[in-house]
């Protein structure tokens, strides 16, 4: 196969390959970028593999950075772009099921490609668009099949994360996992526990955000791989519930965790926090998801959110909540929701036209718990448009609140 119309990313990188080849070495585009080009999908990054050893690559280019020199990776800087160039290599060892104990640089493209995970990821392409297909990856791309290169079990022993990658690609591409590859995942699923939670999490999130999540979830279910994901050992029911939802497409990491929390019926904050902690997410994500889950509950209860709920949820978590609620069948029109949010008189408590100092100056209160209560009452009155966000109006209102509290 020769690709005649190469995406701009390849055209920009072509001079790099040309320079390496002019010096007598081989150089190819490899991996995901070749796969995605053939599928007509946008590219994330362009990876280059070469027979030149790292020191040889560095001699050919003025500006390089040693991004992973021990694994053979050198970044070549060119016109504001950075291109990761990795020397052909074989790997051995893998005692920890995560990474090789030893990397050996080699001069053969075939040796490099045969250690890769799936046939569709083991394609290489020349600078002129000629696809090198040593493991029938093109046929698998055509037929929508994920097949391990060579002996599947060996590929998963080398890096157990590849089992998660299989189900993630199934979801992103709508591919089916070839039977022997699937069997090898079922047989080696326990190895997933050797993988850092953070790496498994990234694949889980990508699976849930794929265009064909049912394909990915089916893979998890039939292989039993889900049992070895954090907090998932007894979650067959969760997977089945997700699979039973009408067609869905999540577009953010926040939405994935909100949908999971809701489907697992984790509506109180502590339970959501516990789940996300087990998956080692950031505190920022935990805070977003706990807020969004509350908003999903409010949407379910009332069909729409009050001004106060809109204010305290914030537009980002509102958008997350509404995406999830829409999948569950009780979302609001997103434009209407954004309009209701924009219509709030203020969007942050710091925008309130009075503060504690103003209350003291007006002799309405002395610093203490009462001050906080009065400010909260003012905030709520402004959000619900009972009082305009003007200092005079708010001081009048605060005076009334203070009186009522003193009596
Ligand atoms: N565990 C892994 C990870 C990567 N690879 C190889 O390294 C390439 C690049 O890996 P990566 O950038 O992680 O993934 P992509 O396949 O490019 O896909 P995506 O960018 O969607 O993650 C893959 O295509 C594959 O050939 C592999 O064999 N085993």
From TrEMBL:
Keywords in UniProt for this one? ATP-binding, Magnesium, Metal-binding, Nucleotide-binding, Nucleotidyltransferase, RNA repair, RNA-binding, Transferase, tRNA processing
Indicate the segments forming the CCA-adding enzyme C-terminal domain, all copies.
Answer: 249-398
Among its keywords, does the record have RNA-binding? yes
Source superkingdom: Bacteria
Question: Which InterPro entries did the record assign?
Answer: Bact_CCA-adding_enz_type3_sf, CCA-adding_enz_C, CCA-adding_enz_firmicutes, NT_sf, PolA_pol_head_dom, PolyA_RNA-bd
Gene Ontology biological process: RNA repair; tRNA 3'-terminal CCA addition
The residues that hold CTP are: 32, 35, 116, 159, 162, 165, 168
Q: Name one GO molecular function term.
A: CCA tRNA nucleotidyltransferase activity
Any idea what this protein is called? CCA-adding enzyme
Species name for this entry?
Lactiplantibacillus paraplantarum
Gene for this chain: cca
